[in-house]
Amino acid sequence: MRSTRRLPVSAGAALGVVALGLAVLGACTAGGTGADPAGDSASVAVDGTTASALPPGKYQTLPQPCVAVSADELKKLVPGATDYTGKESPTYDTDRRVGCSWQGATTDGTSRTLSIDFERVVSYNPSISDEVQAEMDFDRLATAASIPLSPAGTAAGTVSTPPPVPTGSGTAAGGAATGTGTATGTGSDGGSPDLLPRRLTDLGDAAFINDVLKSPATPAASRVGPRRDVSLVFRTANVVVSITYAQSAPRDGAAPDSSDLQKGARQVADELESGIER
User: Of 199, 200, 60, which Cα lies nearest the Cα of 131?
Assistant: First the structure.
C-alpha cells in the first residue's frame, strides 16, 4: 500500500516557486501577450517622452496630373500646342508628388506654358499632423514669394507691394519662373490692388497668387519680348497644389496681360480643387 503522507517543503523552496511565478507574469505583461508596444496607436516614444500618435492626413492618393485639366480648358489656355496629352513631371514617388505641363505657341510669336504640381504632405514627426505640416510648407512658400500676410494688404487697409525679385534664375514654386532678365512682382499695368500678389480667401484652406513680369536683360539682342509668370498655390488639408501659367510676348511685343493670366490660373485652380475633393 502506497503512503499518502506529504513530504515537508522548506520555506526557501516555496519562496523560489513564488519568485519564478512573478518573473513569468512580468515577462507576459511586458511583451509576452503578442502586443507590440512600438505599434500601439495610443502613444509613441519620442526622445524619451510620450506623444500622441496622430491619424494620417485626409488624402492618401493624388489625381492623375495630365488628365486633371479638361481638354477644352487646355485648348483655351495653351493655344497652338501640338499635343494636349501633357508632359508628366519626373518624380521618385507618385504617391507623394505628381505634376504635368503643356506648352503652345501661336503664329504671332506668342507662347504660353501651363504647369501643375500636386504634393501630398506626410509628417514624420509624431507630434505634428500631416495637415499641420502641409500648412507649414504652404506658409514657407508664401514667405519665399513675399506674399502679404493679410488677404487685403496691411492692417491699415493699404496694399503691401512685395520687394522686386532679383535678377537671375528665378525662385521656386510660388515665385518667379526660371530665366534671365529683371523681374518684379508688381501685378499688372498700373498696379491694380486686385491683381497684385496677394492671399486668396475663397480657394482651399489657404491660397495665394503671385504675378511676376520679366523683361529681357538686353531687349535689343533678345529673340523674345517680355514674359509674365502667374503662380497660384493653394492647400487643401494635406495636399499642396502649385500652378504656374506663363506667357511670353514676341520680340518688341507688349507685356502679357496680367488679368488674363490670373483669370486662367484661377480657372485651373478651381478645376483641380474639385478633382481633389472627389
Answer: 60
